[in-house]
Amino acid sequence: MRNGTSWLPLALLVTCVADASDVGSDAYLSGMPKVELHLHLEGSIDADTVVEITNRNELGYFTTVEEIEESLANRPPGLMGFLEHHMKLQNVMQNRQDFYDATFSLARNLHDNNIVYADLFFDPQAHTSRGISFEELFEGIDAARRDAEEAFGVTINLIMCINRERSVESAFEMLDQAYPFRDRIIGLGMDSGPEYGNPPVKFAEVYARAREEGYFLTGHHDVDVRDSLKHIRQSLEIIGMDRIDHGLNASDDPELMAELVRRDMCLTGSPVKRTTDPALQDVDRIVTLDNAGVCVSLNTDDPEEFETGYLTNMLVMFQDASGYSDADMTRLMWNAFRSIWLPEPEKKRFMTQLRDYAIAHDVDWDNVVRR
Ligand code: ADE
Ligand code: ZN
To answer: Ligand 1: residues within 6 Å at CB?
Structure first.
């Protein structure tokens, strides 16, 4: 698996991740307790589950795994090309059972990767705009993550995302629909695109109300989008976000990096790779941020839509590309653990798992927590 960077069918990829446990440092990464903070339900439905759902609902497309792979391989480049396939995938879900199945099968994959805690993004507007009620989709997702906690011991919290290309009114409508369920949704995020022309400040009032209603706040700042640095500053200074999703262009701006360090603001990095990419994206940016002391974590974003796949595999690829030691890799994972939005005692319980694991494997802890 060390050099296994060519594209693999999804089922095979999972098998290889399991195989990774018996060789060298891959065994350390594989066994490491993990946290994933940037993961979209709509980009994480495994191909078998997609096929099961589409056939059950007689949708007439994505009826085979091969058809999904072909659509993945042929998507146009860039964020909007990515979103084209992503939207097709998200549209397969029609009812509560579909949302349940997608979430439950994802939780199984998280468990297989030793993920102990995950924040899961979901895009209500992408579904309510197709006539599915908020309650229908939410109850399916929520029931599955509760059952998964019991079945696999993985804790999943939910972040609903504003689709940034839609109107402010539509975002407020989503907040209204979510209100009865707000104690089961941890945060408000923002995703989709295009990002340029739909900056964070567009939704300043929506975020302000979400804050009053008790949500944590985050939002996407995709890499190399025009005005990315300006958007990150808006999110820090105007919106008051609690985390920044992506945001890796901050590595271009020493002053912004210093500001992120001063605020102890964490970025959810996502160094993914598509089949057509020559290498894992953004490794240098993440190393620059890490060297500057910025809290940056590694996340898979949409594991069913990238060759990087699930977290263990992605960490192995990142370690190969960066030359990072196990202690360095643990530091990036520690950043995810310390930016979990849970009360301190609960968060500490998760953090202790990683610390104990690292120390039991003779990892230099001073290097992990260097700041
Ligand atoms: N939806 C899923 N992944 C996304 C990303 N990286 N950017 C914007 N929207 C997304
Ligand atoms: Zn994302």
So the answer is: 40, 43, 79, 86, 191-193, 220, 222, 301-302
